[in-house]
Design brief:
Layout lengths: L1 H19 L5 E7 L6 E7 L1 E2 L3 E5 L7 H9 L1 E6 L2 E12 H18 L4 E7 L2
Antiparallel strand pairs: 1-2, 1-5, 3-4, 4-7, 5-6, 6-7
């Protein structure tokens, strides 16, 4: 309950900064609610991959935004001021994400205890 109230205040404040590209690892994922069918914009950390993006899930795959993306099967990622349609969301583990994050960021992900990631593919 507290987290929902907090995100209703924080997300609108962070979204413009996250989508602008000022902070390289931040972006915004635009997704549709599973039940409400409302559209939401959630600031996220992410890393581009060869065919899409890898998103660390510090709170696991049970967050509403992640469940929404998985249920819908698509979303839009705004990163560095550009919108990217993404599809084929799937939960992957650190072994899949590590090569994308490289040797500098990998230790930080381990230190933070992040074990699950959302992988999405850029739509053609």
């Amino acid at each position: 309950m507290m987290m929902t109230r907090l995100t209703k205040v924080v997300n609108p404040l962070l979204s413009p900064i996250a989508s602008s590209g000022l902070i390289g690892v931040w972006g915004v994922i635009h997704h549709t609610g599973r039940k409400s069918r409302k559209t939401y914009a959630t600031p996220i950390a992410l890393k581009p991959s060869a065919d899409g993006f890898i998103v660390p899930l510090p709170w696991g795959p049970g967050t509403d935004w992640c469940r929404n993306v998985l249920a819908e099967g698509r979303a839009v990622v705004t990163w560095h001021g550009k919108d990217y349609e993404v599809t084929s969301p799937e939960i992957v583990d650190r072994a899949v994400a590590d090569p994308v994050y490289g040797p500098i960021l990998r230790p930080a992900l381990r230190l933070l205890g992040i074990k699950k990631f959302l992988r999405v593919t850029r739509a053609p």
